[in-house]
Amino acid sequence: MNLLTAKIAAQGQALELLAERQKVLAGNIANADTPGYQARDFDFARALAEARGQGGSALATTAAGHLDTGGGAAGVTPTVQLEWRTPDQPALDGNTVDLDRERASFADNALRYEATLRFINQDVKNMLSAITGQ
Amino acid sequence: MSLMNVFAISGSAVSAQSKRLNVVASNLANADAVAGPDGQPYKARQIQFETVASGEGDVAGVRVAGVLETQAPVRRVLEPGNPLADSDGYVTHSNVNVVDEMVNMISASRSYQNNVEVMNTARTLLSKTLQMGQ
C-alpha cells in the first residue's frame, strides 16, 4: 500500500460501508408498509474492523528500517453481514420496520458519510500542500 | 455505487405509494356511487404491497403485487323513491368506508414524503461525493 494514500484508502473503505448501510436503511424505509417485511441492518463498527483486517500489507518488511505499511489493503471491497432488527412494537402484519428508528439511523448515517467525505477532502488538501510545498 | 441503488429502492417505494394514493382517490371518488358500468355497486379496492429484491444482496425495494376488492359488506339504504331501489325499497351503495380511506391517504402521503426525503439525502451525499478532492 502506498503510504501517501493509505489514510485515504482506509477512509474509502469506511465510505463504502456507509453507502452500503445507507442503502439498507433506505430499503427499510421503502418497505415500511409492506406486510411481513423484516427490517435489516448491519453492525458498521464490526464490518469496518473486518474490512480493515482483510488483505494484509502489500509490502513485505524485510529489514528493521522498513516502514510498516499496516494492515488493510486498498481495493478490498468490504463485505457485510446483514442482520435482522428486533422490533420494539411488533406489528400485526409481521412488519418489523420502526420508522422513527430507521429515519434516525438514516440521518445519523448520512452525517457520518459527510464527515468521512470531509476527512478525505482534508487529507487530499494536506497531501497537495505537502507536494506543492507552499 | 451503493448510493445509486438508493434511488431504485426509494423510487420503487414512491411509485408504490402513489399507486396506493390512486386507489384511495378512486375509492373516495366512488364513495357514493350506486351503480358501476356493470350495474353492480362499486366495491372498494385495496392495494397489496410486496417486497422485491433489487438485484444484488438482500436489500429490497417494494412493488404493488395486486389490487384486491374489499370484502366488506355493501351498504343498503332505504330509499323507496329512488328508481334504482329493489322490490323492498332498498338501494345498494358502495362498500367504501370514507374514514378508512382518509387514514389510508394520510399514511400513503407520509410514506411518500419519507421516501422522497431519503432520495434527497442520497442526492446530496452523491453530489458531495462527486466533488471529492476539489
From TrEMBL, chain A:
GO terms for biological process: bacterial-type flagellum-dependent swarming motility. It holds the Pfam family Flg_bb_rod. InterPro entries: Flag_bb_rod_N, FlgB. It is found in: Bacterial flagellum basal body. Its main location: other. Residues 11-38 form the Flagellar basal body rod protein N-terminal domain. It comes from the Bacteria. GO terms for cellular component: bacterial-type flagellum basal body, rod. Keywords: Bacterial flagellum, Cell projection, Cilium, Flagellum. Belongs to the flagella basal body rod proteins family. PANTHER family: FLAGELLAR BASAL BODY ROD PROTEIN FLGB, FLAGELLAR PROTEIN. Structural component of flagellum, the bacterial motility apparatus. Part of the rod structure of flagellar basal body. The basal body constitutes a major portion of the flagellar organelle and consists of a number of rings mounted on a central rod. This is Flagellar basal body rod protein FlgB. It comes from Ramlibacter agri. The gene is flgB.
TrEMBL record, chain B:
It comes from the Bacteria. Residues 88-132 form the Flagellar basal-body/hook protein C-terminal domain. Signal peptide: none annotated. It holds the Pfam family Flg_bb_rod. PANTHER family: FLAGELLAR BASAL-BODY ROD PROTEIN FLGC (PTHR30435:SF2), FLAGELLAR PROTEIN (PTHR30435). NCBIfam families: FlgC. This is Flagellar basal-body rod protein FlgC. It comes from Ramlibacter agri.
